[in-house]
Amino acid sequence: MLGLLAVLAGPGAAQAGAAEPETTVGDLTGFSADGAVYHLKAGAAEARVSFVSAETFRIELAPDGAFSDPTGDDIVLPQGTPPPTRWKERSDRYELSTAGLTLRAYKSPLRFALYRADGTRVWSEAKGLSWNGERTTQTLARGADEQFYGAGMQNGRGSTSHRDKTVEVGVDYNWDDGGHPNSVPFYLSSAGYGVFRNTYAPNTYAFTDPVTTSAKEKRFDAYYFAGDSAKGVIGQYTALTGKPFLPPVYGMEIGDADCYLHNANRGERHTLDALKVADGYVEHDMPNGWMLVNDGYGCGHEDLAETAKGLQDRGMQLGLWTEDGIDKIADQVKAGQRVAKLDVAWVGAGYKFALDGCKDAYKGIEDNSDARGFTYAPESWSGAQRCGVQWSGDQYGTWDYIRWQIPTYAGATMSGLAYTTGDVDGIFGGSAKTYTRDLQWKMFLGTTMTMDGWAASDKQPFRYGEPYTTINRDYLKLKESLLPYQYSYAHEATKTGVGMVRPLVLEYPDDPKAATDAAKYEFMSGEDFLVAPVYRDSTERDGIYLPKGTWTDYWSGRTYEGPVTLDDYSAPLDTLPLFVKGGASVPMWPGIRSYKDRTAGSPLAWDIYPQGRSSFTLYEDDGVTRQHRDGKYATQRADVDAPVRGAGDVTVRIGASEGEFTGKQSRRPYEFTVHTGSAPSTVELGGKLPRLGSAAAYKAAEQGWWYDRDDRGGVVKIKTAPLSTGKKFAVKLKGTSAVGGRAAAASAVVSVPSGQEVGAGAQSTVAVDVTAGSADVTDAQVGLEVPEGWQVGRAATADRIPAGTTRRVEVSVTPAKDATAGEARITALVRYRSAGESRTATQRFAAGVMPPPPTGEVWASDLVWLKSANGYGPAERDRSNGESGAGDGHSLMLAGKTYEKGIGTHADSDIEVYLGGRCTAFTADAGIDDEINGYGEVAFSVEADGKVLWTSPKVTGASATVPVDVKLDGARHVHLKVTDTNGSRTGDHGDWAAARFSCS
């Protein structure tokens, strides 16, 4: 309600009274020049053009001739001396020019058009500026192929073109798909320009033909930017409104938020209890950078200094939610606060309040400590990129939530928002699977946090048990190892305005698919990582688009040549589809839990995918203080010279580290993983480095190299003794290759048929397909890497697989007797020879572990559920659907009859059970639970092995109970589904009462 009132009463709210008719500016009646500022009169109206730089200018229009500027100096920063300009009058127009641009002001009627110095048109108004009592509108002609991006955080949109769409820009407090929290009144065009409306009023942008953009105020005020690329336009916009801030390094680690004092959901606790949760991260060897200890309605705090010290002792920092405003921030920061989360409904009504809150909290941290300001906000505005992270608000943990957040954050980068994120698995609902999948891809955002206290149970990444805890740890530590890469991009954003998380169109503007839905659910993390999150309950991912170039699967080492679209990509629960661009050189911190684990002797690792000539510049500073603003930082460049394709030498040149800062390493060891796919003859660092014969020998040695043919298609691993950071050096790999190997086309491909099942404790077989490339595969041996406690039979062999053909082999595997039913990850590993080389190919895949099939008469609620998707909260055993926790439903009741056994769900739901062909019939009473009092409308269905066996008529809360009696002869997998039938899920509590299987 607070949010709604803010929208209704906030800036730009419509004035009461009769609507004023639309007025379009008339003919030019006066012109004057004052340096780089030009005045153009049209009757009572006056326009003003002010040049800021050679490629940036401002147009204002005052319908009554009286200019105003409600934003003052809040958003636009001082810009220095205006550029030299000149003007010329022609018969039909005035031409206002800098060295690079000419703005035409046509006389009759007054209408603007922008041209480059070479005479090409950038944009033109289809008609003059217009206004009524509520809003002012600009109308632009739309180019035949022109695409549009920006408008800030647009939930579910933004990474692909806004063409033919209308987007709203304003405070809406809508955290769902289609909402627009953290709006920015800026958009950019593929025609090479951008527009920023300098206002606190809400905007509407219709990218139709023609394009109409309006702000809800009776004044016009817009800045225009012209550039050769989208990155250049973003750079100009952020030069005007502020470059993104540089977060502290702990701010790029995951954060944790909860309420500890007066927590109604968790019982009475105290602020110091946060330290017990912090201990959980340490004990589970999981990174965590900071903790908000009062994130909840009515949640206070106490013992701040002691809590802050305890967190710092555990490698974390204290954060606070600003429920009560920020007037006490000075004392809180002095006590140890380093993070401020700003929910603007509580510090103001959005727009100016939100921006002021961001700036004031940021300044409060910096004025009272030596730390950098670091804030989170869910409803910000232009300029907030210079003081905080934009967070997408309170959301539910669902697969759909994952799906639409992908374009949301990637698209926000097109508006100069360098740090956008959402809570891992939302704050409501969620599950172990959705949490794990959501956490995976959010490790490739710059910032993120997990939020507790509102779901049925806490949401720390170690709460769900195995295999989820291990998978979550692996991805948290992967992010930790990538901090040098991500932090270097954070620094780059302070110079360019371009964030690390990018839609494909930003890196591949000439690719016709990059602006379309083909690339909507993937993004670039920097220039080198392409991330395609899994957003369905599936172990495969379809529709992964790889643009032009060579792309290496991060997990298997398989290379692809783009442009190409991948379907049926094998993605077991622990596998995020992740690809690395050919030529990448990725700096890493290996093996750490916290950035504080780094010591003077810690190594710097480079993960290199050699292809042609490429480079990466590492940025380093102390990570915490503001001394970098005074020049206390260092950069170190890695240059790689390799073949573009095939065989040749690879040279990695590491330059001297230039610059100084407190804590800089004067010497450090280096490690390199060079993805060649072919073993080098020698590796040199000055002289020859010793070649090591095993993983153990490599681990024990101070210096040397080892070619690991089984690691991701073949990786050269190199380590050095400590070297001076002040001196350059080169590592030369002789007689090796570019990424993919000497004969990349001859590489074999391993694939695995989907849907394979094995029984707990039962001997089974797993099928593996081996496809030869451009040369015959010989001496192939196919083995499996399986979970601990499983047994694998002898490796299967294939003496020869002719080029271009596929051979299927089967390997025996016996899962542990106590193997958990559900998905298990297996890795197929194939060692073979092809094109004169010994190679290895690997493939991760998921096998379904099936429980023993049921016997006799068995209740559905007593079986193992392979799947239990539910529309709200968890599906319940022997209870009606409850709230967000398991076991919080009521007794099952249909038509006045109470049932002891059954399943309580909420549409849309899907319960999957494994019968193994042993059952003959399913019976139940189906209906909407009496507790709904007549509401709801659903349909029930029973499906088996992909076929629909039975479907009910529409059932309402007032319907009679529907008897279910379905024959199941031979069915292996049965799905019990409840589906919404009227588009409203209110009251859709579908019960499978007395649900029972009859089995042999």
TrEMBL record:
Boundaries of every Glycosyl hydrolase family 98 putative carbohydrate-binding module domain copy: 854-999
Stretches of the chain forming a coiled coil according to its record: none
Q: Does the keyword Transcription apply?
A: no
| Pfam families tied to this protein | DUF5110 (PF17137), Gal_mutarotas_2 (PF13802), Glyco_hydro_31_2nd (PF01055), Glyco_hydro_31_3rd (PF21365), NPCBM (PF08305), NPCBM_assoc (PF10633)
Q: Which domain of life is it from?
A: Bacteria
SMART domains, from UniProt? NPCBM
Ranges for the region named Disordered are 69-88
Q: Which UniProt keywords apply?
A: Glycosidase, Hydrolase
Q: Which family does it belong to?
A: Belongs to the glycosyl hydrolase 31 family.
Q: Which PANTHER family does this UniProt record tie to the protein?
A: HYDROLASE, PUTATIVE (AFU_ORTHOLOGUE AFUA_1G03140)-RELATED, MALTASE-GLUCOAMYLASE
Q: What is this protein called?
A: Glycosyl hydrolase family 98 putative carbohydrate-binding module domain-containing protein
